[in-house]
Amino acid sequence: MLTLVLYGVLVVLAVTTAIVVVRTILFQRSQQAAKKIEGVPVDAQKVAEHLAAAVRCQTVPLDETGTPDPEAFRQLHQMLAETYPLVHRHLQRDVVNGYSLLYTWPGTQPDLEPVMLMAHQDVVSADPEAWTHPPFEGKIVDGFVWGRGTLDIKNQLIGIMEAAEALLGQGYQPQRTLLFGMGHDEETGGVNGCRVMGLLLKERGIHLAGIVDEGGGISAGLAPGVRGEVALVGVSEKGYLTVEFTVQSQPGHSSTPPPQTAIGILARALARLEAHPLPTHLRRLRPLYHGIGRAVPLYLQVAFANIWLFGPLLKRWLVGIPEMNASIRTTTALTIVRGGVEDNTVPPEAKAIVNFRLLPGDTIADVLRYAARVIDDERVTFEPVPGKFNEALPISPSQGPAYEGLRMVIRQVFDNPPVAPFVMLGGTDCQHFVPVCDHIYRFTSLVMDESFRGLEHGIDERIPVDGMARMVTFYGHLMQAWGAPAMSIAPFAGDK
Length: 496
Prior knowledge:
Layout: H1 2-27, E1 32-34, H2 44-55, H3 70-83, H4 85-90, E2 92-96, E3 100-105, E4 115-120, E5 140-141, E6 144-146, H5 154-169, E7 178-183, H6 194-203, E8 210-220, E9 229-237, E10 239-248, E11 252-253, H7 262-275, H8 286-292, H9 298-305, H10 307-318, H11 322-327, E12 331-339, E13 345-346, E14 349-358, H12 364-375, E15 380-390, H13 401-413, E16 419-424, E17 440-448, E18 462-464, H14 465-482, E19 492-495
Parallel strand pairs: 4-7, 4-8, 8-17, 9-16
Antiparallel strand pairs: 1-19, 2-3, 3-7, 5-6, 6-18, 8-9, 10-14, 10-15, 11-13, 12-14
Helix pairs in contact: 1-9, 2-5, 2-14, 5-14, 13-14
């Protein structure tokens, strides 16, 4: 009997080992090396000066609703017209809703679906007292362009315009129509800029073959467990849901308080929300680590290829890393609490604001049901804040001409890093183009290591001059690739 049990155990171990090995082999992948091609001519210093000039146009919203400063946008539009005369001579320019810009570069084959490259003109505010160099002076110092918007995201605005101007100077004409979409209020949701632009494209009957907007970049050391540089392409972005929670109770004097005040009831509800986060979905990371391929250590390849076996260990590791925890679940953040105005008065009401970021697959309705179940207290009422919610965006395919063309260009320009899909944790203007495009990608063509963390929207935002020049090269390659019928212009050199 004991012998049979041992044989049984050995058979189970053998079968399990075989399954693990086979799944790991299937999970591993090598990506084809792309041949380098000659890029558009780039004068790095001039590009830096042009970005610096754009930074000096203080396109900061005048209020939290995104009201634009007319003079700042007039200056920026004039600067673009003067700096890029060929673009403004040969491309159609539409000013959408007063400030957003839509450029159209007609292709020689108008039957092909157009593609669109995106950036946004607006930037967030900055306190000049905290900066090494004033945020709106556009200083070029120590090999960097300093200023608000150099990373988010006037770099892409200038990169697109520089590349188009250079290609026009060479006499290039795309076969596929190219659009450049430059919203003016992305930082406050894009409702008056790219939302209107998306509706305009829909009204014109335009369906896009691909979009590239801001997003992932060339990550060095930012993907846990990964060796070397990896190019991360956002194929979706998390949804956004802000909910207001309210508790009302009988007011009174603090000398004779009730057993529970509105504040106490609300505090218990919030504590329960925080203590019971939404479930994790480890399989959402498989495309990322599969795309990275052999840059991932073998033990992680084994683990992600066999989540059925190693899921608990992966979960324990990933939830302790804030960025990765946010990548595998819908997150819950308690952000605002209000209640009471006097220390000796029991308040009649207490309110709180909670922000959820929805992983694709979770819906707003799912999260609201979850909140009701976790809180389990009818005295706590809640509802989404108007204008502060949207579902997670659809996941664009990580295959097909648009993605493969983008992947090829990234590998050409950045010396063949692994390219992998991921879900953006923040939001972009892409949400407004879902009805007119099924292949939406978010990629910022810049190598970013730990030193870049916190610079976007932070103090001393800056970009390397040589990094800005390479961004121009990237957009020049991408325009030629996506401007071709096959959305690709050069074959791969073969497996690495």
